[in-house]
Every structure is written in C-alpha cells, then in structure tokens.
Amino acid sequence: MACPSSDCKPGARLLGVRQDDGTIALLPEPLSIDEAFFEKVAAHPVAPERRFRFTNKCVKSGCGQWNGKGCGVIENVVKLFAESHPQAPLPHCAIRKTCRWYHQEGNDACRVCTFVVTDVLEEDINMPSRTAETL
Ligand code: SF4
Ligand code: SF4
Fold first, then answer.
1. Residue 65 near residue 72 (C-beta atoms within 8 A)
2. Which among 38, 36, 58, 59 has a CA at the least distance from the CA of 109?
3. Alpha-carbon span 60 to 130, nearest angstrom
4. Per-residue pLDDT tens digits for 116-131
5. Is 79's pLDDT higher than 70?
6. How far apart are the CA of 95 and the centre of ligand 2, in A?
7. 73: Cβ below 6 Å to ligand 1?
8. Residue 71's closest CA among 79, 36, 41?
9. What residue owns the CA closest to ligand 2's atom 2?
10. Model pTM?
C-alpha cells in the first residue's frame, strides 16, 4: 500500500503541491524526484513536507502514525473534517488503487485528503484549512 503523506526522502515521489490557500493540488501522476530536487528543497527555508506532499510505501508499524490497525493520520482527519466536507467531490488521484488512506476510509479519505499537510507547525492547527499528522 502507498502512503500519501510521506517524508521527502529517497524513494519518495512528488504527489502534490501546496497552494496559496493551504490545500494540496494533486499532480496528474506522481513525479520521481532526483538529487537536484533534494538539493533545491534542502536550500529552502521551509521544510519540503510543508510545501509539497510525497508518496512512498506505507511502512505500517515502522511509522509512528500506525495505530496497530491502520493509519492514525487519516482516521483522525476524517473524524475532524468529513462531516464538514460530506459532498466534496473526490479529487482526481493517480494512486487511489494502492492508497492506504483510501483503502482504510474509502471516499471520506479522498474528500479530506487535499486538506492534509504532512509537516504542520502548531500555529497552523488553528487555521481552518489546515490539518495535521500530529493531531
Ligand atoms: S501509517 Fe499512515 S502516515 Fe505512516 S506510512 Fe502508513 S499511510 Fe503513511
Ligand atoms: S486519500 Fe484519496 S485523494 Fe488522497 S492520496 Fe489517497 S486516493 Fe488519492
């Protein structure tokens, strides 16, 4: 299964780009990232996980967000946001067939997915369009 909110590290692919309104625009297809990309984001003052979303293999119990049964990130985000986004259309997404979040929470995951920013600072949590893996 694929993690749709992984760290920016070798093996990850670029899944989406954070827009000015804080939501994530998913790319038509995940893009491979190369050494030049890593160098560029390393030189930027804002962590790449705050500016982009990356996908990589879900490592289950090797991840601090794994709760023993599934991914705690999407479980929490769906609980917090699904009610306020019940009719939101599903975004086009190239990884749906293998996505851990979709397989766990179904369409509800996709309705809130673009509100998730992987690396979120405390002050963002109070902003309406932000959600966090740390919630
Ligand atoms: S448990 Fe969740 S956050 Fe962790 S690797 Fe799997 S999908 Fe990603
Ligand atoms: S939750 Fe849905 S929209 Fe988000 S990455 Fe997974 S399949 Fe794509």
1. yes
2. 58
3. 24
4. 998 875 555 444 444 4
5. yes
6. 7
7. yes
8. 79
9. 110
10. 0.89
